[in-house]
Amino acid sequence: MSEERALKKKSGLNFKDQRILLAFVIVGIVIVVSIINPKFIELKNIIQIFQQISVMGILTMAMALLLISGGIDLSIGNLMVLSAICMSTLIASGVALPLAILVGIIVAIACGALNGFIIAKSKCVPLIISLGTSQIFYGISLTISGGRIMSFNGTLDAIGSTKIADVFPVMLFFLIAMIFVAYVLLNRTKYGRRLVAIGGNEKNAYLSGINVDMHKIGIYIISGLFCGVAAIVFSARLDSVSASAGSGYELNALTAAIIGGITFEGGRGTISGAFLGCLFMGVVTNAMNILRVESYTQTIVTGIIIVIAVVLSNINNLRKN
């Protein structure tokens, strides 16, 4: 359902709303970890959490829109990296930074359009198609970079290091902006309402006069745009990129969206829920770092979260049906 429809409830807390439960879980984790280590609740660490989820948050918005429309894209991690590598290559060859960034975003949009066109016209399962294009994007990144780590040589420091009021990193505003764009697109536009209709029942949407193919291609183009913006933030944070750097981002974005109440079946979910899912992932990861949990154990915990998220999503979907 759309954000507005989800919010049109009677006054009072609705504990059947997954967002409410998720918010309580996040607060509970914050309280417990803060008791163990008070540094967890310090402003510096809170900002660090939002910095850590800045890239994943933008990709989660893209994944959320795709899932709600009945699609999915497992190539967004490698697509983001391909965009970043194109930017780095152009900058290294002497191209002006604004133009390099523009070309990187255009590459991401073009690749998103390719995904959407193949999926819409072939009527194939989006998961399989995007797995294939993910390998294509990864291969192109390897070819361009030669398998080397590509450096930006500090050209994006204005985004990666600059802080407003010496507290809030500029990159956080990229995340906020993309969350706002996703929310407005889904809830304040006719296009967004049609995406929900397509995700809910594609056949009925087609019979009602909606150009399903055009809308599918459109949402993958928008997803590509989000990947291009994520590439800017990713590059600004690390000042370098390698062809394998995008591995795992698509799975984390998918997990965050599912945790936030968005289903695989499409037609249901909210942008606020997707953001809370992303925040939950960030809080858990940061908490494990603060508590000095070994990296191997963190991987196990992440895997457990993914399994639980998928199971709960399926259970909730069965209940609603």
What does this structure look like?
The chain has 321 residues and is mainly α. It has one domain (42-320): ABC transporter involved in vitamin B12 uptake, BtuC, CATH 1.10.3470. It is built from 15 helices and 4 strands. Strand 2 (163-164) and strand 3 form a beta hairpin. Helix 4 runs antiparallel to helix 14, helix 5 (76-92) packs antiparallel against helix 6 and helix 5 crosses helix 12 (212-238). The longest helix is centred in the last third of the chain and has 27 residues, at 212-238. It starts with a helix and ends with a helix. Mean pLDDT is 90; it is low at 6-12.
Question: Gist?
Answer:
With about 325 residues, this protein is mostly helical.
Give keywords:
single chain, 321 residues, mainly alpha, two-stranded antiparallel ribbon
